[in-house]
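Subject: Predicted fold for Probable membrane transporter protein, 315 residues

User T.R. writes:
Posting the sequence so we have a shared reference for the thread.
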Amino acid sequence: MRSLIVLGLVGFAAQLVDGSLGMAYGVTSTTLLLAAGTNAAAASATVHLAEIGTTLASGISHWRFGNIDWKVVGRIAVPGAIGAFAGATFLSSLSTEVAAPIMSIILLTLGVYILVRFTAYGLPRHNLGKPLRSRFLAPLGLFAGFVDATGGGGWGPIGTPAILASGRLAPRKVIGSIDASESLIALAASAGFLVGLGSENIDFAWVGVLLLGGVIAAPIAAWLVRHIPPRILGSAVGGLIILTNIRTLLRSDWIGAPGDVQATVYIAIALVWAAAIAYSVREYRRNKEHESVEAVEAVETELRRPRAEEEPTPA
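User M.O. replies:
I've generated the structure tokens; pasting them so everyone works from the same file.
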């Protein structure tokens, strides 16, 4: 019973992050399932089955808040579903001994990317309003869908930063569109796992609890996306993913690191993680202060303009 409650909280927290950041539900949930000793393919299958419902709830919530660009959804979702089905069948064919470390490496790579991307650069906003073309979105969707299924997550960590980096879509629209399209990716990946694994290797009680937690969090996250600083959240989530997957790799048969080495690595990662969060907080506050100063200057300029126009012209 306790494990189910913990899973429900994991689903809630993961969807809260995913719905407000546009990533990390699958990566966070799969990471924790792997840490609990779940089979790699079964962990990814469990998460993707839950995501069918959570992403649908999240998509509806984002639609109600006007956070979706349906043209982007249409161009990225179908290639993403094809990639997800292929990735699920590929992962199902691997042995547990091979699959678990491979998945941890994928998740670790995504965690490093999330941490560096959001800590160092924040959210780009240039090129807003320019169209996103199919020749960019289709390959992106295919690749992100494949990694999502094989890594237990990756649709958001790959798709969201890639579209944000283009600077052509407002951040809340990027997050809402990625979340809305993920329902099709989760459905395709789940179909691939059911074909490759069958249903006997999946704990549907875990699926249900993860789903329940995610559905409760979805509308809250869609509202919070306008208020939570994504830069800080990205740094926090990236560090968590790195720390958890380093733990899995160090304890795997591939490495088998002794306890003192593991402790040293954990301390080093924790220090880097804390520094990254502190830096993100500082940069966020500095940017807010800069924006406030610019806003005040703009108001003062606007207030001075009528007075200048009323002054008599010198003779």
